[in-house]
Design brief:
6-stranded mixed sheet; globular
Length: 205
C-alpha cells in the first residue's frame, strides 16, 4: 500500500514537515510506502476553468500537477498538509489541489484522505475544514485522530515541542493505516459501493 503526502509549506524542513515525518515513521512500521511531494515552494498557477482537461486527460498547464496526477491515482491514501496563513491554507497549495482534483478524472472513491495543519496559534480548525472538502466531494473517507489534525510551532523545529500534536500525528497515521487496510479487504469481498449516474442540478435555469 502507498500513501502520497503533499507538503504545502514553502519550507521543506519546517513544522509542517515535522508532522508529516512523524506520520511517515508509523506508516513504515505498518508496511506502508510513502512519498512526499513538496508543493509550497513551487510556482503553481490556479485553475482557469478552460475545461481542456476533459479533452486532454490532463491539465493544460504542464507542471507539478500533471507530474503528481499518476501518483495520486496509484496511491491508497492521500495526506495534505499546510501551514496556516490568515486562517486558511497556503494559496499555492490550494491552487495545486484545485487543479489536481479537477483535472484527474479517475474514480477516487474509497481512497483515504487526511489533512494536517500547522500554525503558531490560531486558524487551525478553519484550515483543517478547508482541506477536508477536497476529500468529501470525491467519496474519499476522511481519517481522523484523537484531536483535530493539528500541530503548533512558529520557528522551524518548534513543533517538536508539541507533544500532543506529535501524538495526534502518530494516532492519525495508525487510524489511516487501519482504514486503508480495512477498505482493501472490503473491496476484495464486496467491491466498491454502487454508483448512480451523476445528477447535476443547476439552480439557475
Amino acid at each position: 500500500m502507498k500513501v502520497l503526502m503533499i507538503n504545502g509549506s514553502p519550507h521543506a524542513k519546517g513544522n509542517t514537515s515535522i508532522a508529516l515525518h512523524e506520520m511517515e515513521q508509523v506508516f513504515a512500521t505498518e508496511g506502508i510506502e510513502t512519498e512526499i511531494v513538496q508543493v509550497g515552494n513551487k510556482d503553481i498557477r490556479g485553475c482557469i476553468a478552460c475545461h481542456s482537461c476533459f479533452e486532454k486527460g490532463r491539465c493544460v498547464f504542464d507542471d507539478l500537477v500533471n507530474e503528481t496526477a499518476p501518483k495520486f491515482e496509484a496511491c491508497d491514501g492521500l495526506v495534505v498538509a499546510s501551514p496556516v496563513y490568515y486562517a486558511s491554507a497556503n494559496a499555492t497549495l490550494i491552487a495545486f489541489l484545485d487543479r489536481l482534483f479537477y483535472s484527474t478524472h479517475f474514480d477516487k472513491t474509497m481512497k483515504v484522505g487526511a489533512s494536517v495543519v500547522a500554525a503558531r496559534r490560531g486558524g487551525l480548525s478553519a484550515t483543517f475544514d478547508e482541506l477536508n472538502k477536497y476529500f468529501t466531494i470525491c467519496g474519499m473517507p476522511v481519517a481522523s485522530s484523537q484531536y483535530w489534525n493539528s500541530i503548533h510551532g512558529r520557528e522551524p523545529g518548534e513543533a517538536q515541542q508539541d507533544a500532543e500534536g506529535l501524538q495526534t500525528m502518530r494516532t492519525l497515521a495508525r487510524n489511516m493505516a487501519f482504514l486503508m487496510k480495512s477498505i482493501a479487504l472490503g473491496k476484495e469481498q464486496y467491491g466498491l459501493p454502487e454508483k448512480e449516474p451523476a445528477c447535476h442540478t443547476n439552480f439557475v435555469r
